[in-house]
Amino acid sequence: MQLSEITKYLEQLAPLAYAEDFDNVGLLTSHTNEITGILVCHDALEEVMDEAIAKKCNLVVCFHPILFSGLKKITGKNYVERAVIKAIKNDIAIYSVHTALDNHQNGVNKIFCDALGLTNTKVLIPKQNFIHKLVTYTQLDNAEKLRNALFDAGAGNIGNYENCSFNSQGIGTYMGNENSNPEYGDRFEFVESKEIKIEVTFEKHLQNKVLKALFSNHVYEEVAYEIYKTENEHQNIGLGMIGEIEKPMKPAEFLKFVKDKMECGGIRHSQFLSAEIKKVAVLGGSGSFAIKNAISAGADAFLTADLKYHQFYEAENKLLLADIGHFESERYTKNYIVDFLKEKITNFAIILSELNTNPVKYF
Fold it and tell me: Which of 206, 240, 270, 345 is the most buried (most CB within 10 A)?
């Protein structure tokens, strides 16, 4: 398969526009367009490159980006440089999904929730500054065609609804100069016409696609339109999730349940409260920044990783705060990626890495 074909599927899995600004997602190394096999892993380490070579895979799809910050030298002095050198020498492409999949409604945190059997799940921290709004004006007989083209380009999706728009009628006026070629009226003629105003929202990364649909399907020579940035939260994109376990549990019983389900080597936690655990917030990876969000959402427990000593105080006796381990909180992500790719690409080598790249060991 061509690399470009596969990356299209990977962008369906985890749209790059969903990633956090600090992140480094997408294609990290590439020296060939002809892909012979895909190895899916958690961390694209040097030993993973060896595994890819042995299994004749020249595309490694990883969760964490091996290239996170810039490299000033590539001398092989550390694990990042050694992995990159081996990938380049052996024509192995590396592609990372990281926070693009973290923010997806079916991504890392939904996988986390599903592993625990949580129901009634929703995003814990909806993504902000991601929704834009288009306003345009056209003739009544052009409105349906134009609206449908905007919908096809991805505009008009709100939560669980699609093809959403607001339409209002009014009077538009214009007069063309000597260089104009008006569809309605003549040059130098003042035209008053019944028009329809169409308003639709769209995810900001779709702007070029939406504007192309607008210009290609609008009846006017000069298209009048405005685009606004909104402060609306995107309820289906964002970090973390919150849901409910099937039956309430005492804190100790709940942590044993989590330890078994997520195969944890150990769990660090805040002090137990008397209340049973029913509503659970999760955030795969480093999630200390979301403690207040979990409390505000009414969670009885918040499961995440990489908590520092003083951050356990932030539980404020309002919820059970548990650090289950970074790798453990994301452990089923690579399985999800493999399942997704196998569904999209049949009769092709898509292999789950056999290596456990968790750098944290338990005694």
Answer: 240
The pLDDT of residue 147 is 98
Residues annotated within a binding site for a divalent metal cation: 64, 102, 326, 330
Answer for the pair 164, 200: CB distance below 8 angstroms, yes or no: yes
Helices (H) and strands (E) in the chain, counts: 11, 15
| Angle in degrees, CA 345, 108, 280, rounded to 5 | 145
**Which CATH number characterizes residue 274's domain?**
3.40.1390.30
Torsions phi, psi for 34 (to 5 deg)? -95, 110
Residues 6+ positions from 127 with CB-CB distance below 8 Å = 18, 103, 233, 234, 237, 238, 239
Torsion over CA: 208, 213, 219, 221 (sign): positive
Q: Three-state DSSP class for 179?
A: coil
Domains held by the chain: number: 3
Whole-model pTM: value is 0.89
Q: Is residue 65 part of a domain?
A: yes
Query: What confidence category does residue 30 fall into, taking pLDDT thresholds of 50, 70 and 90?
Result: confident
In angstroms, rounded to a whole number, what is the distance separating the alpha carbons of residues 181 and 158?
37
Give 168's DSSP letter. Answer: E
DSSP secondary structure string for all residues of 336-358: HHHHHHHHHS-SS-EEE------
Amino acid at 300: D
User: Which tokens in the block code for residue 184?
Assistant: 């309605």
User: Rounded distance, CA 245 to CA 240, Å?
Assistant: 16
On whether both 65 and 193 belong to a single domain, the answer is: no
One domain for residues 79 and 141: no
Residue 260 lies in domain: 108-127+237-323
- Taking alpha carbons only, the member of 129, 142, 146, 124 closest to residue 200 is 146
- pLDDT classification of 287: cutoffs 50, 70, 90: very high
List the binding residues: 64, 102, 326, 330
**245 and 119 both lie in a single domain:** yes
Tell me the residue type at 54. Answer: A
Whether the Cβ atoms of residue 321 and residue 307 lie closer than 8 Å to each other? yes
For residue 183, the model assigns a pLDDT of 85
